Prior knowledge:
The chain is α+β, with helices and mostly antiparallel strands. Helices cover 48% and strands 10% of the residues. It has a five-stranded antiparallel β-sheet with strand order 1-2-3-4-5.
Amino acid sequence: MVKLLSLGKSVSKLNNNDSPLFASCHTWYTRKFVEIFDTPENCRLFADEDGNLKKIKVLDFLVITGRVACKVQTDNGQTSKIEILFNEWDSTTWEKLISSWSDSIYFISQLFAGKIPAEMEEIYANNKTSFLADNIDQICILQNGKEVSKLNIFIVAVINKLIEHLEHEPFLSFLLRGRGKDEIMLEIRRFRSNLQKIHSNKLKKLSNEIETKINGFVEKTETEIAREQIENFLINLENHPNEVNASSYWNWWPDIQKIKYTIKADDLPASILKRLEPLPLGVLENKINYLLEEGYVHATKRAHSFGLGLG
């Protein structure tokens, strides 16, 4: 692709509203596009001080994938075929851009409304690309099938026509980059759908993990507390057998009150009531055990009666 301008070192950009380059630009993206033509010579062409632009008609103007094509005709019948070719984004760039757009409800709403917000420029920069071109070397202009290295009045007329169309239909810029509006919208919907599924699965997985951890923590905590309290009780009985007597028995009451139980409901209705297991207090060998034996028997009978619904 040849350079369109062989004017040496470019002059500084004319970004003020008085520049003839921006006379027909009302959006940030059309201004961004015409900036690549910002030279004194091109400014004179766009200014049209001699009125030649008004004598040119743009016919059969067409925007298709990656290019603009049309015919231009002067008032004396002279015609030329003009084409402007743009670099199309590859699939990787498209995927990154659509991903960036789809992550923001704001961008989606703007795009579905047929607008390109100014913040889009930052997304382009983050993905190392631009609206239509970063500089004039990234487009190619053909006049009657031959590349031209310099703008002329015919090409300026076509550029003005393109600006006019972009102002009313900004999605044409995406078509010049390789994809049309319908295809982009379909990709955004597909991406958003996949994104929602991913988020939904992540939330579900996270919720299950939290629930499992909470249930496990509660079950483990209650079980371990009860086990530790009973084990400590038995250890004290084993280490200090002489201290277990009728007078010291009630000293254990505060610790016994703290013991927690988790009772699981029967899986089968009207299940057979099992015989109560003996308490883990060893064999009845000392005075305190004998004194409490009658209490154990009474508690067992009451538990059986309660379980059988008899009292």
